[in-house]
């Protein structure tokens, strides 16, 4: 959401709004199901090839909200705190599967790959990864 606008605190808050999302993502599936069930009736829906185009149009006022993964939204909100605000809309009522995220490293960079895998293993073993999931991936 653009900073200073009324918060969208539930999926129903998208009704009457101009909503943007990236094509061929879980946001596509989520918004389609919300519209098909009648839970949400956006004013206009804009589909983009790249998520950054969604945020460009939010910045320019062409859309009211961007529907995307929380990790992406947090990144944009943190990078431009005077421009964007984050809000959480839980999608478990529509999407039952957990979404997997990956970490890519340059092919052949085994030192970095091993470091990433070791860090993830340590976080998992200590229980910290579950804490992070609970705090940031609501």
Can you walk through the features of this model?
This protein has five helices and three strands. It is mainly alpha-helical and 138 residues long. The two termini are 18 Å apart. The model has no long low-confidence stretch (mean pLDDT 84). Strands 2-1-3 form a three-stranded parallel beta sheet, sandwiched between helices. It has helices spanning 26-36, 51-60, 70-79, 110-126, 128-136, and strands at 18-22, 44-48, 65-67. The protein folds into two domains: 11-79, Periplasmic binding protein-like II (D-Maltodextrin-Binding Protein, domain 2); 102-138.
Question: What keyword list fits this structure?
Answer:
5 helices, mainly alpha, single chain, 2 domains, 138 residues, 41% helix, D-Maltodextrin-Binding Protein, domain 2, three-stranded parallel sheet
Provide the CATH superfamily of the largest domain.
Periplasmic binding protein-like II
The overall pLDDT average reads: 84
The total domain count is: 2
Number of strands: 3
Under the CATH scheme, which architecture of the largest domain would be assigned? 3-Layer(aba) Sandwich
**Total of helices:** 5
Through-space gap between termini = 18 Å
CATH topology title of the largest domain: D-Maltodextrin-Binding Protein, domain 2
Main β sheet profile = 3 strands, parallel
Q: Within the largest sheet, what's the order of strands?
A: 2-1-3
Q: Which sequence of SSEs, written as H and E, runs from N to C?
A: EHEHEHHH
């Amino acid at each position: 959401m653009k900073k200073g606008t009324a918060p969208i605190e539930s999926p129903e808050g998208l009704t009457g709004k101009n909503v943007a999302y990236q094509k061929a993502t879980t946001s596509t599936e989520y918004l389609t199901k919300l519209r098909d069930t009648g839970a949400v009736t956006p004013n206009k829906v804009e589909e983009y090839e790249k998520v950054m185009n969604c945020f460009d149009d939010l910045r320019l006022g062409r859309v009211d909200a961007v529907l995307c993964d929380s990790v992406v939204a947090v990144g944009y909100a943190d990078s431009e705190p005077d421009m964007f605000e984050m809000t959480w809309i839980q999608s478990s009522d529509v999407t039952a599967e957990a979404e997997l995220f990956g970490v890519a490293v340059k092919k052949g960079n085994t030192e970095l790959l091993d470091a990433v895998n070791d860090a993830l293993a340590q976080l998992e073993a200590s229980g910290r990864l579950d804490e992070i999931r609970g705090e940031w991936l609501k």
